Amino acid sequence: MHQGSEPLINELTLARSGVFSILNRESGDDQTWETSFSIGDRHFYVQGVAARGRPHGIDPDVLLALQTLFFEAGCPEDDTVECTAYRLLKLTPLGVRGNAYARLRESLLRLEGVSWLTRVSRQSGGRFRGTTETTRLIDRISVRDTSLSASGEGGVIEAGAPLRVTFSRHFAQSIREGFYQILDAELMSDLKQPTARSLYRVLQAHRVGDDGSLARELPVIMAAWREATGLSGQRANNVKRTLDGAHAHLIAAKYLRDVSYEGSGESARITYAFEGEADPELVELLIGMKVSRAVAEALAADHPERIRPAVRAVRQRVAEGYKPRSLAATTVDAIRKPEKYGGVTDASPVTLSRSAAKSPPQPQLLVPLSREESLSMVRSVLRVKLGRAPRAELLTRLERLDDAAVERLAAAARGREDLIAATEAVTGEAP
Length: 431
Prior knowledge:
Layout: H1 6-16, E1 32-39, E2 42-50, H2 59-72, E3 80-84, H3 85-89, H4 100-113, E4 114-124, E5 127-136, E6 138-142, E7 145-146, E8 156-157, E9 162-167, H5 169-176, H6 185-190, H7 194-206, E10 217-221, H8 222-228, H9 236-252, E11 256-262, E12 269-274, H10 280-287, H11 293-302, H12 304-319, H13 327-336, H14 354-357, H15 371-386, H16 392-400, H17 403-416, H18 419-427
Antiparallel strand pairs: 1-2, 2-4, 3-9, 4-5, 6-9, 7-8, 10-12, 11-12
């Protein structure tokens, strides 16, 4: 992977520019949009055209599934994914029952129908200087439909029929570079809420610095963040409600450590604090395998016990004559899918990885949280859900709860029931 290459910039800009709305449901039928906003010292100007509506909801998951299949097929030179709808759906949270095939068809057509112009610039000497790019994701889709109306709308893709999706050349090259795999598959699987998965994608992109390092904190202004997350046009209260719901899931999933607000309204400042620390030695080991710093830091934080065995396995294959198309992409694949490369992990990882700490479909911690860790998680999620710190009386009552009550609230914080209602029931105090 080549740090600073054109595909890398393009993939980052896609996630940073608010092209995909984090909304789970379509908020309107606008086929064009225009927006400008600043995150840090980067200034974004975006013009979008979406023939079948702006991508949202499940669309990023469908795109990630397509990228995964493309990579697993060896990144074919014709830039085309060939599979069945059933195979594609198995890689998404949609499942394979009910209206999943109709929703998949709608999602694919939205992805094919979107294109956009992005200008990313910085201020220098009183003037803005940057790069303007025009981009699209998919050049062609071929599916076999059933249940079409006379006008050709409302179709359902046949489960076992051939499905072909051809990426744009530029986007296909970004997959060959392996950059998309900065997204943690285990975390995506744990996040059942589409809005939380979409916000994770945006946060992870904006964390990446110019040198490829991942920021430990990310401050944003509400007005700009609304545009960056594709929530433009939503009322302020609805924006905050949407964000807070996603924040709670990301804290429970151990991606965010905390989310704090300062001020109110459009000028409110939101500060995201992220979990996880990457071992610098593991990061440098991955960089030596041509993996970019951003991806190396993410993988070293999420899967520390897999890094050295994966590097050993890839180096051994290369020594035996294997010539990978991309050394970086093969290394990332070995970390993500160790079973393909021998399945060995270090016996004594420095830190417990997210995948080792959880077992799908419900997060099950192999090492139970301490009482204080559980209370800390409950306080953090309550703060996000309430949009303010819980009342002092409530915090006092939380400290006095027995272990069983604390565990119930910790389970609620992970999304198993309404945390606010559970807190009131357990403590007798309104948060």
